[in-house]
Write a structure and sequence with these properties.
Layout lengths: L2 H7 L2 E6 L5 H10 L11 E2 L8 E5 L4 H13 L5 E5 L1 H5 L21 E3 L6 H23 L9 E3 L2 E3 L5 E3 L5
Parallel strand pairs: 1-2, 1-3, 3-4, 4-5, 5-8
Antiparallel strand pairs: 6-7
Helix pairs in contact: 1-5, 2-5
The chain binds iron/sulfur cluster.
Iron/sulfur cluster binds next to α2 and α4.
Length: 174
């Protein structure tokens, strides 16, 4: 059986709050609790970047969190996928360009799936992780080939734009 199949059936998750209000984090924890119970889909919240396949990030990325976020991402083995959970992680949300924060996590690390909402609902998070698993499977196959891991990166208004290949869940961004 191919390695990519094991990864898709039993992904391990790393959750990081990059300076959000905790609203989205509570929804992620709700996904782990018995009502939504994503463990039944084979997912485990590991808390160790070196053993994780999926990085769930909430919050707008405060200046203090920036370095830690990039470190955690760098410590995860390839292939890996990043899910921006909530409007803050997608665009900065209510904290956008305030004195302590920026415009979301894709200014610092590549994002594979954006989940809109303030807070993102558990159903959206589960759908977003399912989309991320499809991308993870594709990346696994690409590693097995191997070819380039990332899609096209373009410049927009002087800033790096990595949204071309990302999946989306939910409505428009705030
Ligand atoms: S999107 Fe809303 S609920 Fe989620 S961290 Fe930001 S302010 Fe909090």
């Amino acid at each position: 059986m191919k390695l990519s199949l094991f990864r898709k059936k039993s992904p391990w998750i790393l959750h990081y709050n990059a300076g959000g209000c905790n609203g989205c984090d509570i929804e992620i924890l709700a996904c782990l609790a018995p009502r939504f119970d994503i463990e039944r889909l084979g997912m485990i919240n590991k808390g160790n970047p070196k053993q994780s396949d999926v990085l769930l990030v909430t919050g707008p990325v405060t200046h203090r969190c920036r370095e830690r976020l990039v470190e955690l991402y760098a410590q995860m083995p390839e292939p890996k996928v990043v899910v921006a959970v909530g409007t803050c992680a997608c665009t900065g949300g209510v904290f956008r360009e305030m004195y302590h924060a920026g415009k979301g996590i894709d200014r610092f690390i590549p994002v594979d799936v954006y989940i809109a909402g303030c807070a993102a609902r558990p159903e959206q998070i589960i759908e977003g992780v399912a989309k991320a698993l499809d991308i993870l499977e594709r990346k696994s196959k690409e590693i097995e080939k191997p070819i380039s891991l990332f899609g096209e990166v373009s410049e927009h208004d002087g800033e790096t734009d990595r949204r071309g290949m990302a999946g989306k869940v939910g409505g428009g961004k705030n």
